[in-house]
Design goal:
Helix content is 28%, strand content 12%. It is an alpha+beta fold. Strands 1-2 form a two-stranded parallel ribbon.
Length: 64
């Protein structure tokens, strides 16, 4: 379970998810994780934001 919003925690949760762990991401109600507010990637206007790319690697997410 990942509930810490500081940058190292979501990154570690992503690594665990990439290795097959089922990670439950707990986020603040109506706000979400700070990573969701990061800008677009270098891929241009159609690119996925860094935060979205990182959070999508988690197998399960929960907002409480």
């Amino acid at each position: 379970m990942s509930a810490c919003p500081t940058p190292p925690a979501p990154l570690c949760a992503t690594f665990f998810g990439e290795f097959g762990a089922e990670v439950i991401k707990v986020e603040q109600p109506r706000v979400g994780d700070d990573l969701r507010r990061l800008g677009r990637s270098a891929d241009g206007p159609g690119g996925v934001s860094y935060g979205r790319a990182e959070l999508e690697r988690l197998r399960a997410r929960g907002v409480i």
